[in-house]
Design a protein that fits this description.
- By secondary structure, the chain is mainly alpha-helical.
- The chain is about 75% helix and about 0% strand.
- Helix 7 crosses helix 8.
- The chain is elongated.
């Protein structure tokens, strides 16, 4: 198998596994399900990933790292601190992967204590540190109240995560309206007077 073909196969496995984890959850998705969807053998999966846990962590790493990189690109030229929050609200809706987030919660229960859980927690902590740094910069700019950046980062992300449950009831456009209004209300509580 040449390198390009190998890359394509790996991406197909990742795409199919991501879809299955989102549809069925982590525990209900088997390596056999992934092989069938990707049109490859178990050996093909194990050529790229040690096991299902390793594959799931790879998907999470790609999603969270890619998401932060894209967010950084989108906001590189935005100096208005308030606008950054509205852009983040829209971005959160645009990149929302609630079913995969639910699979991640399940993964944490099913794979508790494994090396892959430690890797997964490390990925989540890196994302949180990035968001904490962002919140710290916004506080330092004088736009937000003087609060602990880590605490405020958790509050803001939890706020948006809770709102994301609305995906079952609202269209993407309706969610954007909800998230923008919620951002306005959130900022009225944390903006420096």
């Amino acid at each position: 198998m040449n390198q390009e073909s190998d890359k394509v196969t790996k991406q197909r496995i990742v795409d199919c596994a991501k879809a299955l984890f989102s549809q069925k959850g982590y525990a209900a998705t088997s390596i056999q399900d992934i092989c069938k969807a990707a049109g490859c053998s178990k050996g093909g999966v194990y050529h790229h990933f040690v096991n299902k846990e390793d594959l799931f962590v790879y998907i999470a790493d790609t999603a969270f790292t890619g998401s932060w990189d894209e967010w950084s690109k989108r906001t590189a030229d935005i100096d208005d601190m308030e606008e950054l929050f509205y852009v983040f609200a829209d971005y959160f809706v645009d990149t929302l992967q609630r079913p995969l987030s639910k699979a991640a919660e399940e993964f944490m229960r099913v794979a508790a204590g494994s090396e892959n859980t430690v890797r997964f927690v490390g990925i989540m902590n890196a994302y949180m540190r990035n968001f904490e740094d962002f919140i710290g910069r916004v506080i330092a700019s004088g736009f937000l109240k003087e609060e602990d950046p880590k605490t405020l980062a958790f509050i803001v992300l939890s706020f948006y995560s809770g709102l994301s449950d609305s995906h079952a009831f609202l269209s993407k456009d309706e969610m954007k309206v909800l998230f923008r209004k919620s951002t306005e209300l959130l900022l009225s509580g944390i903006r420096r007077s």
